[in-house]
Design a protein that fits this description.
heterodimer; A: alpha/beta; 4-stranded antiparallel beta sheet; 10 strands; B: about 290 residues; ABC transporter involved in vitamin B12 uptake, BtuC; 2 strands
Chain lengths: ~240, ~290
């Protein structure tokens, strides 16, 4: 079997004295798309933050294309291949839209022109400052900024949260294009399980910092009992 | 005899520009990095001594000593930042104040030991001396030079921060250090370089300031309050604020000493208190 893109082994991490992740292990192949599901506070964002080096790691390892990265300083992880779209989007408010993209730029197939092609709105708003954007535009910018890093793997933390349905459609299409046409690997954290499962091939479910369920996204989408148990009634009902 | 308002404004602006060049680095250090560096004036003093020593001992032309003072002080501040300051970034402000005040005492004692307790003699080149009278205002050539230096420094800072990629990195690192790291920006190094540039500017200010405010080992203590007023009134981390605060301070200090010499030295404090009552975070404070 080929070497996996990402290999996480027995990863435990938290903040300060609080332990959040407990012995998490999973793998993701090149070009893979993984949904990370679970209720709020179960460790999904913490897992992504740990991959980016922003939590206190207590044990376990992270390897990207076989290279151990768990000890790398946070600012070196984008160079190792991680692109991060954090939950709060974290657009730099005192940078223009274009600067938000170029400040992160690394050499590779993703350029300003290609990000503009994926999100034409960002071209129109290139001279606006980061704080002048709508929620949907901020999300496009956060994704575009991660792409400018030319990552091997994009970590998307609830990219559709709180957005109008038409924007959700547009962003879902962009994420689908990233995965299916560009062959980018993603890990997608999402409250809307039915959307997340539609955009990914594999899924894992976190409960209190542990992986409690693994399945293909297609199978899990049909498995209403599991979704209801670990992800919540509301979402399961929608998926049905 | 009353001094004309034009003269007070001109002299005050020149003095204010000098205060700006020296202080803006302190505003950046305290605003961007949250480090209370009371030894900033010692960096300015070091710049002054580098310039006088090069001129008096090695015959280096005055204008050439300025970039050397900038680079020498920036390099010295790099050593201090790596060796001492970095350890206290996460410490409380009291620890930072105690460390940097200690450095001030060491700098004063060290300068007295090396260069003696007196004022440094300095002779400016002929083209920077003399005076013109323009529309009833006595325009000192050296003060005009200080104003031009201040304008050049302001332009360089604004362009550097607003228009360059490194400037965008500084702004990103200040906006959100965690996300900046997530974009591959080495936040610590960005801050180090920014700190060096700010200290270098203090060194440049110390060198161009000798002819106006003198240079002796008491410099870091004598002028500390001026630098702190510029930072407090301007607002932490604001270049525009530092510039306006420094110019106000310069004009009011010069004006107070000319017009009401009995209370002149107190005028700047009255101005500072009123401005801070009006805007507690400073004119352009972020918080």
């Amino acid at each position: 079997m080929a070497e996996p893109l990402l290999s996480v082994r027995g990863l435990s991490a938290g903040y300060g004295d609080a332990s959040v992740l407990d012995e998490v292990s999973f793998e993701l192949e090149e070009g893979g798309a993984l949904a990370l599901l679970g209720r709020n506070g179960m460790g999904k964002s913490t897992l992504l933050a740990t991959l980016m080096g922003h939590t206190l790691r207590r044990g376990g390892g992270i390897a990207l294309r076989g290279r151990p990265v768990e000890r790398l300083a946070p600012h070196l992880r984008p160079g190792a291949g991680f692109g991060w779209v954090p939950q709060e989007r974290d657009i730099f408010p005192s940078l223009t839209v274009e600067e938000n993209l170029t400040v992160a730029a690394r050499h590779g197939p993703w350029t300003l022109a290609r990000v503009h092609e994926l999100f034409p709105r960002l071209r129109e708003r290139r001279s606006n400052l980061g704080f002048q954007l709508s929620g949907g535009e901020q999300q496009m910018l956060a994704i575009g900024r991660a792409l400018m890093l030319n990552p091997a793997l994009v970590l998307l933390d609830e990219p559709l949260e709180g957005l109008a349905p038409v924007i959700v459609e547009e962003l879902s299409a962009a994420i689908r294009r990233m995965v299916e046409r560009e062959g980018l690997a993603i890990i997608l954290v999402e409250q809307h399980a039915h959307i997340a499962l539609g955009l990914t091939r594999e899924a894992i479910v976190l409960e209190r910092g542990r992986i409690v369920h693994r399945a293909s996204s297609e199978t899990l989408a049909q498995d209403h009992a599991t979704l209801e148990r670990y992800v919540g009634m509301r979402v399961a009902a929608k998926a049905a | 005899m009353m001094v004309s308002l034009g003269n007070v404004l001109f002299n005050g602006l020149a003095y204010g520009m000098l205060l700006f060049v020296i202080s803006v680095g302190l505003s950046v250090t305290m605003g961007l990095m949250g480090f209370a560096n009371l030894a900033h004036g010692a960096f300015a003093m070091l710049g002054g001594y580098v310039a006088t020593t090069l001129m008096n001992k090695a015959g280096v032309p005055f204008l050439l000593t300025l970039p050397i003072a900038f680079v020498a002080v920036a390099a010295a501040s790099f050593v201090l930042e790596r060796g001492l300051y970095r350890r206290l970034y996460r410490a409380g402000e009291l620890d930072q104040v105690l460390l940097t005040i200690g450095l001030v005492f060491m700098a004063v004692a060290g300068a007295t030991y090396v260069w003696g307790p007196g004022q440094q003699p300095v002779r400016m080149p002929d083209y920077l001396t003399g005076q013109w009278t323009v529309a009833g205002i006595d325009v000192g050539v050296y003060r005009l030079f200080l104003i031009l230096v201040g304008i050049a420094v302001t332009a360089a800072l604004v362009l550097g921060i607003e228009r360059t990629r490194f400037g965008a990195m500084i702004r990103a690192a200040v906006d959100n250090p965690r996300m900046a790291q997530g974009c591959g920006i080495n936040v610590n190094r960005v801050f180090s370089l920014t700190f060096m540039a700010g200290s270098g500017l203090a060194g440049l200010g110390g060198a161009v300031g000798i002819n106006l405010i003198g240079l002796d080992p008491g410099f870091p203590i004598k002028f500390m309050v001026y630098f702190l007023i510029v930072v407090a009134v301007g607002g932490l981390g604001s270049i525009k604020g530092s510039l306006i605060a420094a110019l106000l301070l310069g004009v009011f200090d010069v004006g107070g000493k000319y017009y009401v010499p009995e209370v002149g030295a107190f005028i700047i404090y009255a101005v500072m208190v009123s401005l801070l009552l009006w805007r507690p975070a400073g004119l352009f404070g972020r918080r």
